[in-house]
């Protein structure tokens, strides 16, 4: 009902309660606009505008524009003001608008052989997950390492080793999400709450920490293990198109020995801190081989579909390893005049999964597109953004300006700067994603290597692998969050294990890169 109009001259024309409501509404509107997230959204364009208006570089206008766009993108990546996949698509409109590259040139960065490699390997990983092959593998290996009587360090080695092996062939996050239920399924046999002994609690911590860190360590071994390795390979190909490419087996011959050293350092740290002598007797009351056998029996014998997925996966690994072997022993790639890449066979073998029947139902194939809805498109878009940025930094002339600014590093010895690069990269990655860290540091390291007159890979590999050493905080990677969510570990547990593991990783990398890395990557030869 409307308020009646009064003849009293002291009566306000606008009702007071309406004024209060409007005032509260205005106040609420201001608060809803000035949220931290909205401020972070404005931060990117604001920093971009400041650089465009106030910064003058000794080069073409496109180099300044590229720097401004870089700051905009990284501001959104670091603050996550805009979802990372959406930020990853921003070069598609920012580069053409700022005159850095044409729309077609930018779009081409989002689909190349490396992206094809990721797509194919992710589809195969989804097939492995769908048919529960990872669980069967984990239970078999855990049963093998369980020991009779129970040997906790050996069992821990089996769980961590299985996780690291699975992580070699799929991305870290899905690996952690698949293996953590397997690990916690074993731990469910232990008592919980106030009745849980200190020995049992420590072993639970060791298992959960072992899974999340083995996921990260295993991913170092292969190109498909983590997005950082693929970002490095893609940027190397973009910056140095005439140089020898980093193939699957080239990376494996370096990454696997390095991962092996870090893995055994992890196992030693966990055993030292959480699996003391005498713990086997206390744990054997709750866990034995009979439990694992019952779990395996529940899965039943391997079906035809599981065997075929394993066969396709095995053939793919062989094709990856034999495409290019050595200079004296050429791989099968020469049959196609080196036109086929790792992505070629990855997509080809993934396609077979949609052709081979599963023999479960009439007309059903091993895979269908509905099963592929979980494909991590965010990772794929992030890879594309990294490649687009690499092309933009080079074509805009920003690389030349960065190279001149870093000339003072020419006389710094490599043995001093390589561990520093790894340490800086591993520190940044604790506060932002591994992939974003790699995308940020790799272009800078290329210019630092140019200033020092050394082979770029001598810095790029430590920088990229250092970006995977996010061991200290739960928020460092999604894998860490998966482990932290189990409730078995706390932040101090991660710091207690993660800090010595990070130091061990940096030490192993600083040792292997100038020795094994020189041989594998051919860093003694000049870059073409």
Can you walk through the features of this model?
With 528 residues, the protein is mostly helical. The chain has helices at residues 16-33, 36-54, 61-79, 84-88, 91-97, 103-108, 113-130, 133-146, 152-167, 172-187, 198-219, 227-239, 248-274, 279-283, 289-299, 304-322, 342-352, 377-395, 398-405, 414-428, 434-452, 457-466, 478-484, 491-521. It is globular, with a radius of gyration of 27 Å.
Which short descriptors sum up this protein?
24 helices; globular; mainly alpha; 528 residues
What can be said about this structure in brief?
The chain is an all-alpha fold and 528 residues long. It has helices spanning 16-33, 36-54, 61-79, 84-88, 91-97, 103-108, 113-130, 133-146, 152-167, 172-187, 198-219, 227-239, 248-274, 279-283, 289-299, 304-322, 342-352, 377-395, 398-405, 414-428, 434-452, 457-466, 478-484, 491-521.
């Amino acid at each position: 009902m409307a308020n009646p109009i009064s003849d009293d001259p002291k009566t306000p024309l606008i009702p007071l309660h309406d004024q209060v409501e409007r005032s509260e509404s205005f106040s609420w509107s201001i608060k809803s606009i000035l949220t931290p997230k909205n401020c972070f959204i404005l931060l990117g364009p604001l920093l971009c505008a400041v650089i465009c208006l106030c910064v003058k570089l000794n080069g073409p206008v496109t180099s300044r524009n590229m720097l401004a766009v870089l700051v905009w993108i990284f501001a959104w990546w670091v603050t996550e003001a805009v979802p990372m996949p959406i930020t990853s698509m921003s070069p598609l409109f920012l580069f053409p608008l700022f005159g850095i590259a044409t729309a077609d040139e930018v779009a081409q960065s989002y689909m190349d052989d490396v992206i094809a490699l990721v797509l194919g390997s992710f589809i195969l990983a989804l097939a492995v997950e769908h048919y529960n092959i990872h669980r069967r593998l984990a239970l078999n290996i855990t049963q093998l390492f369980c020991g009779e009587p129970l040997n906790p360090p050996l069992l821990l080695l089996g769980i961590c080793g299985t996780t690291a092996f699975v992580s070699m062939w799929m991305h870290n996050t899905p690996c952690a999400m698949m293996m953590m239920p397997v690990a916690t399924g074993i731990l469910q046999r232990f008592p919980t709450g106030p009745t849980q002994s200190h020995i049992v609690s420590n072993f639970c911590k060791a298992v959960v920490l072992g899974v999340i860190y083995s996921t990260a360590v295993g991913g170092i071994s292969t190109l498909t293990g983590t997005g950082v390795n693929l970002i490095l390979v893609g940027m190397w190909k973009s910056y140095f198109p005439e140089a020898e490419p980093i193939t699957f087996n080239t990376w494996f011959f370096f990454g696997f020995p390095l991962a092996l050293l870090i893995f055994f350092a992890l196992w030693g740290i966990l055993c030292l801190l959480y699996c003391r002598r005498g713990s086997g007797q206390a744990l054997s009351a709750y866990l034995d081989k009979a439990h694992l056998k019952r779990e395996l029996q529940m899965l039943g014998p391997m079906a035809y579909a599981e065997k075929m997925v394993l066969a396709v996966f095995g053939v793919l690994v062989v094709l990856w390893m034999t495409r290019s072997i050595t200079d004296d022993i050429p791989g099968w790639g020469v049959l196609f005049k080196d036109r086929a890449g790792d992505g070629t066979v990855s997509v080809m073998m993934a396609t077979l999964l949609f052709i081979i029947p599963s023999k479960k139902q009439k007309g059903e194939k091993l895979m269908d597109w509905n099963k592929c809805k979980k494909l991590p498109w965010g990772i794929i878009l992030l890879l594309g953004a990294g490649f687009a940025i690499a092309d933009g930094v080079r074509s805009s002339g920003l690389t030349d300006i960065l190279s001149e600014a870093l000339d003072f590093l020419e006389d710094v010895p490599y043995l001093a700067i390589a561990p520093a690069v790894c340490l800086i990269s591993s520190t940044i990655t604790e506060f932002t994603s591994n992939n974003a860290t790699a995308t940020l540091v790799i272009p800078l390291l290329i210019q630092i290597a140019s200033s020092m007159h050394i082979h770029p890979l001598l810095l790029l590999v430590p920088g990229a692998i250092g970006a995977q050493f996010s061991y200290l905080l739960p928020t460092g990677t999604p894998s860490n969050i998966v482990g932290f969510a189990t409730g078995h570990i706390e932040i101090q547990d991660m710091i207690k294990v993660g800090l010595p593991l990070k130091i061990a990783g940096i030490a192993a990398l600083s040792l292997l890169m100038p020795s094994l890395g020189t041989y594998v990557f051919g860093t003694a030869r000049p870059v073409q």
